[in-house]
Design brief:
Order of helices and strands: HHHHHHHH
Largest sheet: none
Length: 180
């Protein structure tokens, strides 16, 4: 707790208004991309598990064949070889590429999901009218004409575009304060 207070006093890790605006502006895109990335990550994880399983199967299945014919003098220990490769962290190149792709997608998912979490947290501080205006105009990208009509329909109050812009500015003030 003391470390957090120290960071706050030094004003570290504070979001700038431009970063807040970016998070709000790209909210829908981030939600959609996170849904896509979640599916991609699950598929890549499944693929890696299957490929590792096949790699183990292929390594084990290369065992001595009993044909009655003489064989070489080398003693092969496929299980030992596999164990050594696993212990050394030896990963085939194709599997390493898939693991790198998985790591990139996980990093992107983490960054975008954090932005979504910020926006959801900021919305909690807003009143119902402010939340409606921010949601319609910023998060959904509706025109001011659409926001005005929706506001009147939802709340029964007639506001001009200028009045709704003032509500949005008040909401942004609260959001910027929370994001500090």
């Amino acid at each position: 707790m003391a470390a957090m207070d120290e960071r706050v006093r030094r004003k570290e890790n504070r979001m700038q208004p431009g970063e807040v605006d970016y998070c709000l502006e790209h909210y829908r895109e981030n939600v959609a991309r996170c849904d896509f990335l979640k599916t991609e990550i699950e598929n890549l994880q499944r693929m890696i598990r299957e490929l590792k399983s096949m790699e183990i199967e292929n390594s084990i299945s290369v065992t001595q064949k009993w044909t009655g014919m003489p064989h070489g003098s080398d003693v092969a220990d496929p299980t030992g070889i596999l164990a050594q490769r696993v212990a050394d962290g030896d990963t085939p190149g194709y599997l390493r590429e898939i693991e790198n792709e998985l790591a990139q997608k996980q990093a992107e998912y983490w960054g975008r999901s954090n932005m979504i979490a910020y926006v959801n947290a900021w919305r909690l501080v807003l009143g119902e009218r402010e939340r409606f205006v921010v949601k319609m105009q910023c998060l959904e990208g509706a025109s001011w004409r659409t926001v005005t009509a929706g506001f009147q329909e939802r709340f029964g109050d007639i506001y001009s575009t200028q009045g709704l812009r003032k509500i949005r500015q008040r909401a942004f003030g609260k959001i910027y304060e929370i994001a500090k």
